[in-house]
Amino acid sequence: MKFIEDIFRSAGKMFEEGKPLHKLYPLYEALDTFALTPGTRTKKAPFVKDTVDLKRMMVYVVFALMPCLLMGIYNVGYQMLTAKGDEVRLVEAVWLGAWKVIPLMLVVYAAGGFWEVLFAIIRRHEINEGFLVTGMLFTLVLPPSMPLWQAAVSISFGVVIGKEIFGGTGYNVLNPALTARAFAFFAYPAQMSGDSVWVALDGVTKATPLAVVASAERGSAAVGALQAAGYNFQDMFLGFIPGSIGETSALACVMGLAFLLLTGIASWRIVMGCVIGLVGMSFAFSFAQGPQALAFFSLPPHWHLVMGGFAFGAIFMATDPVSASATQAGRWIYGILIGVLVVLIRMINPAYPEGVMLAILFMNIFAPLIDHGVVQAHIASRRKWVALIKADETR
């Protein structure tokens, strides 16, 4: 490690003030802090006891996403082999999946990283580590057949419009990865939705579980329609279904959640709020079943939890510390409303059966208002108690 540190310190002299490569200092600083620990240390008290800085936090989230990435790679290959009617072998499935997923991820990181470096150089500040997570998240919410150039354009929109125009990491109102996905969904609908995008083979179509329920006849049983299409709860929980690269496996998402909770990165209140909102709203809709009701009305709440991108969105997207609510009570409200909106969009709008992306983006906008309301309620409560104490003292 000393040898690597000496190389970085020697190369760093070329990026100092007045040297030829000074304008590229943010790029050098990003590589330096990624490879080594930050070189700055606190000289006097007070000292920070926690060693989890921004870089380590972002790296922890990337680690938490590894189960989703690995399962996504395997599932892409699994879907390709089953679509062709071939025997599914582990090595072949991983190879086929990696051949589709890794180039997509590299393009996303290259295009988004370009804008990150450009804005850092223009503003003369360090490159934020947040894009390590943004690039991974955006890749995992794409279908495996997404054209590379469209992924590059979409992540460019997400980074520039969703984050950089607000000032960069820590100032963004919306989740950048979801902003990029929203752009891709509305700009390239044929490549982001429909039965032909989930299996990375030309001419092969396969409906996702959400699409199966959305297209089922009115008054029919949602679970029956899913089973008739070859889907069962176990496969949906494990992730052996068509869908976005990293969203299909609820188990992989839960594994990532366990790591985030153990390291104190994610807010369990937001995740639990999302679950409570979704289960409560779907249970309420179950009383509105009728002969002409959409099939979604008969879908049990626990099936909602493993369908689409709910688990992935609730764990990795809704818990974004920048765009989510910051107060304790606000996190409960924020999460519950996300769960409620997901069910409303799925059931009321069969043309768009997912709902997770729009629900989180919508609540990103209202998060500051929720926190403001919580703070004002606390202030009003404190004023009431202060008034009571003063009244007692004057007696």
Which key phrases capture this entry?
single chain; 395 residues; mainly alpha; 3 domains; 17 helices; 64% helix; flat
Give a short summary of the structure.
The chain has 395 residues and is mainly alpha-helical.
Describe this structure in words.
The protein is built from 17 helices and no strands. The protein has 395 residues and is mainly α. It has 3 domains: 2-35, no CATH class; 54-199 and 229-243; 266-395, no CATH class. It has helices spanning 2-12, 25-35, 54-84, 90-123, 130-140, 148-160, 176-187, 189-192, 209-215, 222-228, 233-238, 250-262, 268-285, 301-306, 310-317, 328-348, 356-394. The mean pLDDT is 86. The longest helix has 39 residues, at 356-394. The radius of gyration is 24 Å and the shape is flat.
